Amino acid sequence: MNYNPILIVSGEPNSIFLEIFFKILKKKIKNPLILISSEKLLKLQMKRLKFKKRIKVLNLLKLDDYKLNNKTINLINVEYHPLKAFDKITSKSNSYIKKSFNLAFAILKKGKITKFINGPISKKNFLSNKYLGVTELISSKFSKDKTCMLIYNKELSVCPLTTHVPIKLVSKEINKKKISEKVILINNFYKKKFGFKPKIGILGLNPHCESVNKYNEDDKIIKPAIKYLKTKYHVSGPYSADTIFLKNNRKKFDVIIGMYHDQVLTPLKTLFEYDAINITLGLPFDRISPDHGPNEKMLGKNISNPLSLLRAIQFLEKH
User: Fold this and answer.
1) What is the pTM of this model?
2) Structural domains in the chain plus CATH codes
3) Which residue among 106, 141, 259, 261 is buried most deeply as judged by most CB within 10 Å?
């Protein structure tokens, strides 16, 4: 196998992912891409979206023997029988998605491919209540230790301490150990990939880091954790979430850790839109997910922005 290929699972069949994948193939990409998807689905969507490219179906048993490039779509075919190019997202595609991910996991466990991208899935239909998200699904298969969701942009990245947790449960999930784990993973990642220790700002949980309740998580948990971490890492805080992302404040940091998902993802997506990628830290391989969902409303319109997938591929090629 050549050039350290990038393994890609297309994910939910009724999503915009293949549309943006087709757009990416028009770009100059050095590393060969290996797509795990359905040949029938590919052909239907290519016809609908008026995209032409030859498909090369790969034999899993001979994967190491191929000399690949991106002149064709290098496909590991998973049987799926769509009636049309795009349909409503339902649980009917669950077995196809599960088989696609299991194939990817089996390939990754061999250790010869170390770069992985997955397209979006419907958390409600595919994950049900077993996992909070794909990050947790993948982490459960490959890491006994904790992992970390980093939404990365070269100017500023963010990390939610809790991921897809209902707001009413967030305060129960915050503790000193979790804060320390995220800081250590982020610090190690930046040192390994970029050669420096990042400046990390940590947000409080409550508005202005204050609370009318007797028990204040900012005073009892977050401040002591930061005090402890300051001895080894470039961390500071807690900061109020309503001002940290102002221009003169955010430029002081490489990474901002928030206590819950929307506290940090909303401002980052407002600042950079599609120019961000979701990296899972703590895995034995590089896993990235483009920072978008299935986007059912835009199916088949051929107007979806491929920038996040392009940034994911560019990051894996460079690092």
Assistant:
1) 0.93
2) 1-143+285-291 (3.40.718.10), 145-282 (3.40.718.10)
3) 259
